[in-house]
Amino acid sequence: MNIIKKLSYLLVVTLLFSCGIAKKTTIITVKNSLDFERSFETIEVNKSSLNTNDLSLVGIKNTATGELLVTQLVDLDGDGIMDELLFQPKISPNSEVNFEVVKLTELEKPKADALCYSRFVPERTDDYTWENNKVAFRVYGPVAQKMIEDNIPGGTLSSGVDAWLKRVEYPIINKWYKETLVDKTGSYHKDTGEGLDDFHVGVSRGVGGIAVKVDEEYYLSKNYTKWRTITTGPLRTSFYLEYEDWDAAGNKITESKIISLDLGSNFSKFSTNISGTNTISAGLTLHEKDGEVTGNNENGWVSYWQPHADSELGTAIIADTSTYKSFENYDVETKDLSNAYAHLNVNDNKVVYYAGFGWLKSKQFESKEAWETYLNIFSEQINNPLKVSVK
Fold it and tell me: Considering the entire predicted model, what is its pTM?
């Protein structure tokens, strides 16, 4: 009888002790302070805040609905260890939502197509190209620059950003390059229903290339010299670019940047590290100068809406109000040097801005007015980011 009592006592103590050391639930709270619904905004949660050494088994669950959200893991420094978890919640106006951090195997995690994609393209000289379900872009590398300098046909000397006008939500980068350069069954300069590349860059700033203004003259960098893909996946692609030091009226400019593009956004985010200047100017090419430059200094954007082939096209630069200074319509006679510029502050050798476009033919925007409404909403979002807390 005494043995039975002792065993019962030990069982109770064991259960109490187990309860005392049970794992605590981690809750991520996301708050929207604006009076409209927020979606397609990416939440970044680093590994240390989740108190785990392995993000591979981490899932995100809406505590109210039980829905498991699509997530993406990111290795920020290229050491093979995932550092950050991404997810995109939907948050009603002026409200907050709690998400529980749960343990999931890879098979249990919700699946989604990797619509956010980028890569180095050696088969087309040395482009670096990126896309999501809305837009696509590319920039040019050192081989393309050297071809111009050596008078070899087919090169490109430009630090401007090219726009690939897509009107489908599925990926087109690999398909277009393969059809044009490998199979030679088509050309991405012709629209067969998916869109096309008919956006001229030249030495212009394209959609978001930068310049440094000294007195009344703009100074430009050349092509990127180094690249590194950081991540691709269902929610974000990002990559690193580095440039050779360049001169702006005797000032040595050192420049590198991380460019990212998230699911559902028409804007790439340019996180630039730069020294040698306190301001930069991010530009939009004016092409034939038959469009309209508009800007909103209060909301921090400049836009160029133009006729484009058989359609219309809007391009824009947006920055938060602490970064954005003013805009300028810079119109000169020299080919491709006319740009609409957003003048931006550099703080501690860093500047962040967003550059993107909306193509009327893609049916994402029905008019210039709809495009500018999107710019104002985007401005509100970056100036009032979703508030995230982890407990």
Answer: 0.93
